[in-house]
Fold this protein.
Amino acid sequence: MHEEYKIEMRDIAKHFGGVKALNNVSLKIKKGEIHALIGENGAGKSTLMKILSGAYQKDGGQIFVNGKEVKITSPKDSKDLRIAVIYQEFMLAPDLTVAENISIDNLANSGAFINWKWLKKIASSHLTKLGFCDIDPGVRVGTLSIAYQQIVEICKCLTRNADVIVFDEPTAVLTFTEIEKLFAIIRKLKSEGVSIIYISHRIDEIFELSDNITVLKDGGYVDTVPTSSITKEMLVSMMVGRKITQMFPERNAKIGKEILKVEKLNAGKLVQDVSFRVREGEILGFSGLVGAGRTETMRAIFGADKIDSGKVIYFGKEVRFKHPSEAIKNGFGFLSEDRKVEGLLLEQSIRMNTTLASMHKVKNKLDIINHKKEKKYVKELLRSLNTKYSSTENNVNSLSGGNQQKIALSKWISADCKCIVFDEPTRGVDVGAKTEIYKIMNNLAEQGVGIIMISSEMTEISGMCDRVIVMRQGRISGELDKELITENSLIKYAMGV
């Protein structure tokens, strides 16, 4: 074992029943380096990190820390070795305050009673360090946006003085300005000698941040390369095992008549005087910072939140959906940004999730579900989406993130929607699956479906959208046609420049 490595995982194996999740995977991390770990959904990245964190037990292989072999049998072992993992799924207590979550390991500070003033001071210090002093340490975490919850998660790990930190998709819900703040913190940690393992599906981030890259595929080790020695195209080919010639497929949809028209919509503090329209075959982008009101606008239209005033005109008729079920009956779909909480029933079968919004298609005349017909229908639909699964009766939580997203998508495709909101449709999804999701969206547009895409990825907005609406502080700050969509213009409108 060479002592220049802070962490070495050698020939790690892990099985779940008869499935090989990891097959002799190795990973070497130097002190003070940013090491990217990439691969498609299901490649084994998160499993490998859960073994390092003690959440899973390895079935084979060795782990070395600072040149010495260690046994990590629990999260406590990992924590004692000063290893911290910031998971893609937050490990937060929603009913506790920000301050309590950040200092959850040491609430009483070795005393008999909790010093609330001390807790808030520690929380404020870390939040300020990250550039998020606007987050109140006294509010419950469950009331925060997903982006702010991610910041609390990062602060919690910083209190542990870890010298190895794993970031698992940390920017999936952050906007460009927040990402830059996070990158500054990561670079500062590196300069202080902290080793960073960085997992992301965003190729641009990998090239901007990392020193070295390790690629996994189908639970196996592919290669480790210096970031400076490889191109983006080469890296994508290593990940997916094939060459992706075009990230964003060509748009062949014909834009037709108006489907949806929203006039002076007001709903709470984050939706103020919002007006826009969507046409058949059009992909309309919604850009802006997290908290700008994009999701809140769509929730109000969908009937999930109350509308205070304004008009929603759908196919020439003024409507006000009182409940999402009413919107669905009228062919209006909403793919939520948080598939695990709002988009899917994780403990239910793939079959049930797929037909949840279209039960009428698989019922007989007596209003009873025809399971044979349902299974056949689900298999045909999932085949058209290139979804990987073993049985339609398996629970959705058995699938990789990319395939879970396809199940969430299939629900709305099955419902024959005429207008669909896609809220961060490729969040936490690998490059190959992203391209497939883009194709699905294009196919829907070609069938005349009107699509609203909320995305924090500017390349995604410019690559997919016919027009884009930019929101800032609950209001529309700009509208751009296809030829005018640039990163510079999106940032200017989002920041009110």
The first strand starts at residue 5 and ends at 16. The two ends are 54 Å apart (CA to CA).
